[in-house]
Amino acid sequence: MLLKNIKADLHMHGPIGLQKYWLKSQGYGITNPLEEISKHCFDKNIEICAITSDENEIPRNSVHDRFNWLKNNCIKNLPENYKTGDIGKNILVVNHKNKQFYLINGQTVRAKDNGRQVDHLVIGSNNISIGQSLDYTLKHIQDKNLISIAEHPLCISHGGIGKKNLEKILPYITAIEGHNSQLIFGNSLDKLPIFKNYSKKINEQTKRFAKDHKKPWIATSDAHRIEDLGISYIEFSSELLDIRNEEAFLESLKNIIRSNNFTKHCAYENTINWINWVSKFIIGTKLGKDKE
Prior knowledge:
The protein is an alpha/beta fold.
């Protein structure tokens, strides 16, 4: 049997949000978001995509519960030549013609560290308690045997946990997000605060940290536009992934990452596209649309 490689983008939000305002402002108002995600996965040969919820509260089956909202509201409106199935409660399989991809439930967990909000990426669930201490959060993730990733850890202005915390939590995490496609600005713009906060230099520092500490790092898109999924991704042999059930799937994926048995494909968001989604996010947030 001919073996193939699997491409996985493990940090992807889809649109800014699934509320009607965000969908309309980003040009998805008359589309089926799950179909759009599927099309871009198929076009880019992304076979694993983690849809990442990122809110202060994630009521079950609400728009903030992205994975389940897509399942409950979008599957029924897919074209007839799309077929879907479940691997447990947190993995959706989408088939179209001769292509297939796995949509995995994920979460940016908003934890607390000395009064500051910090972010941590989880793959395999979006049901991790929000607003707890970083230590409690990591223990909760570990108890559930989920994939645990330090999310853009050195991007302090955007919820990164910082170098000291990263050193402390290394034994308790699966890997580090070493390349985030949204940290797009070059060194020449570092003197301006807004650009410094999203500098490519942060990625380089994080990769160097991971290498020095012999910890695996992954590359992700952190996409906030559906069409940007798969900008960056990891790739591994399909024979390493066990798809018998949800537990086996997540455990085998965790082992692939933990053992560094994959390659990284790193690229960056286009500047115009970055400004496009960030400006819409800022305007919508000022209007309170993120609270809906």
